[in-house]
Amino acid sequence: MGLIDRLRGRRGSSGAAGKGRGRRGTLDRASGSADLSHLEQFVATRRGVEGYVEPRTAVTETTILLVAADGEWTRRRIDGPETARKLSRDLTVPVYDAQITGYPQRMRDWSARQKADDKL
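RESULT FIELD:
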């Protein structure tokens, strides 16, 4: 069984009845296999990746932000903080709570470089 199947199985065990239990609705879509595949691919093709779990809001589901050693980053929806932590363990990536640690400076520096390159 692959990583995506294991994570999907955990989500699938709550079923449709579990969807409304203790969860308020958001305007965002739920995470899917494409999101998980993207995160796996990002980790596999970059070095020094760290994860930052971002809380669910009224507008978006829980997300995980992955930041590589050079500051390149990606963000995808995830089925809650527990799934983000499990994914991070499975991919052997350290994970932090974004509300507590904030984001690394290298991420902001990378974004600034990308913005400057777009203007050229």
